[in-house]
Amino acid sequence: MSVTAAQGFTAAGIAAGIKANGNPDLALVVNNGPRLAAAGVFTSNRVKAAPVHWSEQVLRGATVSAVVLNSGGANACTGPKGFQDTHATAERVAEALGGEVNAGEVAVASTGLIGLLLPMDKLLPGIDTACAALSADGGEAAAIAIKTTDTVHKTATVSQEGWTVGGMAKGAGMLAPGLATMLVVLTTDADVDSAALDRALRAATRTTFDRVDSDGCMSTNDTVLLLASGASGQVPVYEAFAEAVRTVCDDLARQLIGDAEGASKDIRIEVIGAATEEDAVEVGRSIARNNLLKCAIHGEDPNWGRVLSAIGTTKAAFDPDRLNVAINDVWVCKNGSVGADRDLVSMKDREVRITADLSTGSESAVIWANDLTAEYVHENSAYSS
User: Fold this and answer.
1) At a CB cut-off of 8 Å and minimum separation 6, what does 340 contact?
2) Residues 274 and 358: beta-carbon distance below 8 Å
3) Fewer CB atoms < 10 Å away: N or C end of the chain?
4) Residue 187 region, left (φ>0) first, then alpha (ψ -120 to 50), else beta?
5) Are 150 and 46 in contact (CB under 8 A)?
6) What per-residue confidence (pLDDT) applies to 382?
7) What span, in angstroms and rounded, lies between the C-alpha atoms of 11 and 13?
8) pLDDT category, 30, cuts 50, 70, 90?
9) Positive or negative, the Cα torsion across 342, 343, 345, 347?
C-alpha cells in the first residue's frame, strides 16, 4: 500500500483533467499524526521548478501535514505566476482539509513538461475531489496518479517490530545524480523527530537515488520527502530506522532504473580499489554516461575498451597499467590490457554487471545505468514527455 502502509496516513489518486488523455494525474497524501515531522531532499539543479522552491520553504519548518502532487505538467520555468499557482495549490489543500492545517505545512510537487503553466481551473477542483477520496487504502491510487512516462507505478515497504516505512516514486527519464527526475514520498509511523528524519533521508539518498544515472540529464523538479506520523508509538533505534529508510529508497531506485525510458539493459557499475569513495563515484558516473559504451551494451558487445576510455576522463587516482575490468564476472581486461576472451561474456540477460578495479585503494561505489536504445531516442523526440 506504499505511502499508506504506515499507520496515520491517508492518500488518494484521481484524474483531475490535467492530462489530455484522462489518466490519473493528481495525488494527495495526508499525515494524520499525532506527529507531523518531516524532512526533504531536492534537486541540485540551479534551475528549480516553482513547487521545489515552495516545498523547500515548507521543509524549513520541519512540519508537513500533507503533500499534493500532480503529473502532466512540471510548473517549471513558469515565472512568478507559476509560484503563485503553487501557493494557491497549497492554500486549496489547506481549505479542503477543513482549515485544520496551514498552507505552510503543505508540500507541493509537480512532474511533466517544463515551461507550461498548470490548468488551475482543473487542478484546484481536483484537490477537492482528492480530499473526498482520501483513504487508508489510497496509497496505490496515489502512486498511479504521479506517473508520466512510467510504464508501471513504483512502491516499496519495510516493516519492523511495530513500525513501518513505506514509499512511492515516479521516474523514467532525466535520471542522473542530483536525485533523478523523480517524485518520492516516504512515510513512517515510527515516532521519529525531524532531525533524525533528515539525517536518515540524506544518508539514504546519497547511496541510492543519487547513484542512479540513466541518461545523464538532471531534472528541475526532484523531490524526496519523508514524513513521520508517530502513530505506532514506537521509537526505533536510529540505526535500524535509517537502514529501513535506505532499504526502501534502494528498492525504489532500482525500480526507476528498471523502468527507464526505452531501456533494454540495466547496468550495474561497481568501482572497486579506489583511493577514495569520491573517486569511485566519479569513475562510476563517467562509465554510466559514456554513450559509446551504452550503445555497445545495447548491442550485447562487451567492449571493455570503452570502459577504460571513460575511466581515463576522470581525475581519480589510478595507474592505467593496473586497471582491471570485468563484464558479467569475466575479467576481460587485466592490467590495462587484454584479459580473458571476450567471447566468454554472455550479455543475454537484462542486467549487465561491470566491475572496474582501479587497484589504488580500498574504497568502492555502485552506480546504476541503462543502455542507449533507439526506443529512448524515439520517446524523447517523437513527442513531448
Assistant:
1) 330, 331, 332, 334
2) yes
3) C
4) beta
5) no
6) 66
7) 7
8) very high
9) positive
For residues 262 and 380, what is the distance between their CA atoms, to the nearest angstrom? 9
Give the containing element (helix H, strand E) for 69.
Answer: strand 66-71
Which residue is listed with cell 477542483?
A: 125
Report residue 146 as a C-alpha cell: 504521479
Residues with a known catalytic role: 181
Residues 6+ apart with CB under 8 A from 29: 3, 9, 10, 11, 66, 67, 69, 142, 185, 187, 227
Closest CA to 41 of 213, 199, 231, 156: 199
Helix/strand/coil percent split, the chain, to 5 = 35, 25, 40
Distance CA(251)–CA(67), nearest Å, equals 22
For residue 354, what are the β-bridge partners? 269, 327
H-helix segments, the chain: 50-60, 79-96, 120-132, 139-145, 194-207, 238-258, 277-288, 291-298, 304-311, 374-379
CA–centroid distance for 89 within its chain = 23
Give me the residue label for grid cell 496505490.
140
Q: What is the pLDDT of residues 331-350, one digit of tens each?
A: 999 999 999 999 999 999 99
Instruction: For 220-271, write each residue's pLDDT tens digit.
Output: 888 999 999 999 999 999 999 999 999 999 999 989 888 777 788 999 999 9
Instruction: Kindly give the pairing relationship between strand 330-334 and strand 324-327.
Output: antiparallel
Say which amino acid occupies 350: R
Pairing type for strands 66-71 and 106-111 reads parallel
- For residues 52 and 30, give the distance between their C-alpha atoms in angstroms, rounded to a whole number: 19
